[in-house]
Each structure stands twice: as C-alpha cells, then as structure tokens.
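agent> fetching stored inputs for the coenzyme A docking request
agent> found them:
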Amino acid sequence: MKAKRQTIDRVTATRGLEDVVAGETKISYVDGAAGRLIYCGYDIRELAENASFAEAVYLLWHGELPTAAQLEGFRSRLVSEMRLPSQVVETIKLAPPSAHPMDLLRTAVSALSMYDPDRGDLSVGACERKSVRLLAQTITLVADMHRLRSGRPLLSADVQMGLGANFLYMLRGARPDIEEQRAFEVLLMLHLEHGFNASTFAARVTASTLSDTHAALTSGLGTLKGPLHGGANERAIEIFDRIDEVEAIEDYIEGMLNEGKRIMGFGHRVYKVEDPRARLLRPHAQILCHRAGMGKLSSIADRIEQVVLKKKGIYPNVDFYSGLVQHALGIPKEYFTAVFACARTAGWLAHIREQYDDNRLIRPTSNYIGAWNKRALPIAERG
Ligand code: COA
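agent> prediction call returned; pasting tokens
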C-alpha cells in the first residue's frame, strides 16, 4: 500500500533569504535601490572624505564620531594592542607554506581565544576590551603572517602612526606616503561594515548562542572566505593576468558569459545600481595604478566595466576595486581577502556586541521536502 504523503503548512522558503528581515540593527543601512551606504546615520561618502578608518570604527562601536581627544585615546589603545602572544606567532610559523592566509587567519583568531584574559566574559567591559584587542591583533596577524612567510623580520607598530598606516607599514616594511595612506584608509573604511551580509549574519548566529567573541569572529572569517563573498577580490584581480590588451576584453568577457561563468567583482545581492563603495574606490585605484606604472590596468578595468554593464547589466562591486587598489599598493593577491577581513572584524565586533545586548537565539526553520513513513528495519532485514 502506498503511504499517504503527510504535509505541514509552511510559507514558501526564500532562497538565499533574499529580502528576509532577520533582525534589527543601529549599525548600518544598505540602500540597494539608491546605492547608498549609511554607518550609524552618516553617509559613507562623507565619512570617506572627512574621517579615518579608526574614526569610523569608533562610530560603529560608540554610536557617534569621536572628538579629537577621544580619537587620540582610541588610536593609541589600538596601536598599543598590536602585538601577539608568542604561541600564536609559533602557530603561524608552523603552518605549511601552502596554507591560504584566510585559513591561517581563521585558525590564529581561534587560537587567540586561549590566551585572552577576557575570553569567557561576555560583560560590556570585557567585550569592549576584547574588541580593541581583537581588531589590533587581527591586523598584526595578517602583517606578521606575510612577513614570516616571505622570510622578512617582524615589525612593531609605530605608536605615532594611525591604524591604516601601521597596517601597511607592518605588512610591506615601507612607510606609506600620503596618497597610499589615504587610499588604504578609504579601502578599510569601505570594507568595515555592510549590514546583514553573509559573514556578519554568521557571526551573529554564533553570538546568539552566547558563544564567545572569538568563536563568533571565527564563524565570520570562515564565511567571508568564499568566492561569492570576500574571496571575490582575490579572484577579481585574476582577470588582469588573463587579459593584457583593452581590445581583447569584449571577446574574453563574452566567452566567459557564454560558458555561464561569473565575472568576479561584479554584481550584488542588494545593490541594483552602482555599489557606492566601488564608486569611492575607483579614483584611488586609478591614481595608485598610474603612480605604480600600471596605468594600463586602470584602462582595462574601465573597459571591463563597460562590457559587463552592456552585456549583463551589472556593475562592479567593492571587491573589483579593492583588488586593484591592493595590487597597486604591492599587496600579494592571496592576502586581499585577509586585508578585507581585518576591516570587517571591526564590523563583526559591533554586530556581536549588538547581538549580546539584546539576544534571542537565532534559530530559523525549514520546509521538509524529504521522504515520509519509512520503516527502520533491523540491519539483517535490509535488502
Ligand atoms: N557575473 C555574471 N553573471 C552574474 C554575476 C556575475 N558576477 N552576478 C550575477 N550574475 C547574473 C547571474 O548569472 C544571474 O543571471 P540569470 O538571471 O541570467 O541567470 C543573475 O545575475 C542573478 O544572479 P544571482 O546569483 O541570483 O544573484 P545573487 O543576488 O544571488 O548574487 C552575487 C549576488 C554577489 C553572489 C553575484 O553577483 C556574484 O556571484 N558575483 C560575483 C562574486 C562577487 O563579486 N562577490 C562579491 C560580492 S560583494
């Protein structure tokens, strides 16, 4: 006799949770129709022009921009925390050279929890101390990782310099000039925060179980790595290895689209118009490319934009220009996503604290579409 199919009434599942409102936040607003991004009430365009990365982090963590005195205190606290437990430095040294920086970063952030004096404490004070420490340590991890793996000596943060300048200095060994510093500060600021994106949501889900801050960050890092999310900036730059003439672009893009391939660094789930972060990074990419003798890359980028818009109707996202800016700054491509992750760590930390402050376990449901009424026979009776 054929078993009767049981059904349970449910609303239709939304694939990819598109447009599903999964919570409330005061941290940022992404206006996909107008192409605007707001951090705590401030338009990102104005912040990128008038504020530093550290100021934007302060804004996210305190709800308001700092005064000069508050910023100085915040900056010096961050810079003074830019050192790592020696055991975590050993962890980096022991990793195989083939390990991807994002895998190593995820492992090292997880390892940091074992040496953090506030690790199990979810109180407001402990979360504030851990946030400062973790943002500073994450930046140091990425810089130290690159230096150790390329056989160069580790550099200590310079207490006189800001966060972005120290990051570039500790990573590359050379102090950045004003143009490099400005471009990098803007890049970090634009990667800082972006609503309930996949990695932030993953971090909030982990925080909602009242697991610790390091665990929530580790969830964020694992999620950011994927090529459909933060991993896109590393992939996006690869197109420049394959095309070296502006005239070849149209055929190349057409070939990729005909094969059903995605153009990395293009398209966005929320923005239906140009990603405002791409618009803000583009001029920095152009200036840095020309300065570094890579002017042709900038022309190729322009042409790729035109062709993809014409053929597919989609715009570049932040990762397209983030890859180009980092490339022009001399950062190796396998570190692009890890640099993004350092900035986003501050955004994740803001969300993790917001989740702890008004927590309810995040636990959605699903539509069951599997089999019903099967019988579990003893193993000897299964054919
Ligand atoms: N290259 C080519 N086609 C793309 C595309 C891209 N980068 N991004 C979206 N599309 C196309 C899809 O093929 C699909 O076309 P179809 O309707 O003809 O089948 C349509 O646009 C919708 O794609 P879908 O995957 O449903 O959109 P999404 O909202 O789920 O995707 C992204 C958003 C970001 C995952 C997607 O744009 C993408 O894969 N981009 C490349 C990776 C990237 O840059 N990620 C960083 C995001 S900041």
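agent> quick read of the result: The longest helix spans residues 124-149.
agent> awaiting further instructions
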